[in-house]
Amino acid sequence: MTSVQQIDSILQRAADGGRISPDEALLLYTDAPLHPLGEAADAVRRRRYPDGIVTYLIDRNINYTNVCVTACKFCAFFRAPKHAEGWSHPMEEILRRCGEAVDLGATQVMLQGGHHPDYGVEYYEELFSSVKQAYPQLAIHSIGPSEILHMAKVSGVSIEDAVIRIKAAGLDSIAGAGAEMLPDRPRQAIAPLKESGARWLEVMEVAHQHGVESTATMMMGTGETNAERIEHMRMIRDVQDRTGGFRAFIPWTYQPENNHLKGRTQATTLEYLRLIAVARLFFDNVNHLQASWLTTGKDAGQLALHMGVDDLGSIMLEENVISSAGARHRSNLQELIWMIRTAGRIPAQRDTLYNHLQVHWTPADDPTDDRVTSHFSSIALPGGGVGKALPLVEAH
Ligand code: SF4
C-alpha cells in the first residue's frame, strides 16, 4: 500500500468511527492533506451531533491568588512568595466577582490560582463552600490535578481524601488545567517543579472514580515534537478507556510574552487546526472537542468548527492567566453566536454538563445582552484588580 492509500484508509476508518492507533494519528498529523483530514474530522462531528449544534458557555475565570511556588517557565501569571506583586483575594472579593458573573448570565466559574504555600485542603473547602452557599446556581468547574496534589501535600492528606473533601465542599468538576504537555521530556523542560504527566493523570483517575468529572487540556508550542503531541493524547485516551470521566479535550497554543521561555517556540495556526482534526479522529471516547479562540484568534476558532469542533468554549467574562502571556483576543456573546451561525452551525448556550440551555435556531432567537463580553487581564491593576467591577457592568 502506498502512503497515500494508507492515509486514505486510516481517514476512512476514523471517519466511520473506528479507532486509530497513535502511529496512525501521527501519520495523519504530519502527512494527511489538510482538506481530507478536516473532512474526516467533520464527518465524525456530524455523526455525533447530527443536529448541527455548536455550543458556547458563559463563565468567568476568577483567580484567588497569583502566588505560586512552582515557577513554570511558560507562566506569566505567577509571582513567587513574598514578591511585591503577589496578591491573594479575600473571600468577599471572590464572591463579589461571582455575583457580577451571575448578573451577566454566567452558569459556571473557573476558580484558578497559583500553588500558594499556605493553601491546603481547608482553604479550598472554604472557597468552594462559600461560593456554593452564596451562588448555588453556579457550577464550580475549577482547579486541576496540580492544585489537588499541592493542597494534599500542604494538609498532609491523601489525594483521595482531598478529592472527597473538596467535592463535599462544592466542587462540581475539575478543569483540565496544568496538563501542558504530559510526556516527561517536554514537561520537564517547561515545568520542572510540576508533577509528572503520569501523576496528573493519576489524580484525574482518582477524581473520576469519585464521581468528579473533568475536561483535559493540552498546551502546544513550547518545543515539543509532533510525536509528543500525539503521545499526550494517547495518555489521556488510555485513562478515558478506564474511567470515561473526561468530558472534553481542549488544546490551546502557548502564548509567548512575559515568561521565561520568551517565545522561542510557538505553534502555528495550521499546526493547531491539524491537531484539532486529529484529536477528533483519535478521541473516539471523548464526547466534546473545544476550540480555543482566546489563543488562536477568532478566525482560527471559526475554522476549527470545520475540523470537527462542536464547542466554542466560553465568553470568559474575565481571564487573566493566558492574557498575561499575551493572548489579546476578546469576544462577546453576539460575536460568538455570529461565528457559529456563519460557519453554518446552530448556536446554543450550554451548561457545564453540555446540556443545551437555549438553542438559537434563528437570528430572532439570539440574546441581546451586549454586556456579556470578555475582558482584558486585570492583574495589571494593583492587587489584581481588587474592587474593580467589570467595565461593562459599570457602564450599563
Ligand atoms: S502555571 Fe500554575 S503552577 Fe505553574 S507557575 Fe503558573 S500558576 Fe504556578
Automatic annotation (TrEMBL):
Source organism superkingdom: Bacteria
UniProt GO molecular function: oxidoreductase activity
Pathway: Quinol/quinone metabolism; menaquinone biosynthesis
Cofactor: [4Fe-4S] cluster
Catalyzed reactions per annotation: dehypoxanthine futalosine + S-adenosyl-L-methionine = cyclic dehypoxanthinylfutalosinate + 5'-deoxyadenosine + L-methionine + H(+)
Entry keyword set: 4Fe-4S, Iron, Iron-sulfur, Menaquinone biosynthesis, Metal-binding, Oxidoreductase, S-adenosyl-L-methionine
One Pfam family matching this protein: CofH_C
InterPro entries, A to Z: Aldolase_TIM (IPR013785), CofH/MnqC-like_C (IPR045567), Cyclic_DHFL_synthase_mqnC (IPR022431), F420 (IPR034405), FO_synthase_su2 (IPR020050), rSAM (IPR007197), rSAM_sf (IPR058240)
Boundaries of every Radical SAM core domain copy: 54-285
Cofactor: how bound: Binds 1 [4Fe-4S] cluster. The cluster is coordinated with 3 cysteines and an exchangeable S-adenosyl-L-methionine.
PANTHER family the record matches: FO SYNTHASE (COFH) (PTHR43076), LIPOYL SYNTHASE 2 (PTHR43076:SF1)
Family: Belongs to the radical SAM superfamily. MqnC family.
Role played: Radical SAM enzyme that catalyzes the cyclization of dehypoxanthine futalosine (DHFL) into cyclic dehypoxanthine futalosine (CDHFL), a step in the biosynthesis of menaquinone (MK, vitamin K2).
UniProt-recorded name of the protein: Cyclic dehypoxanthine futalosine synthase
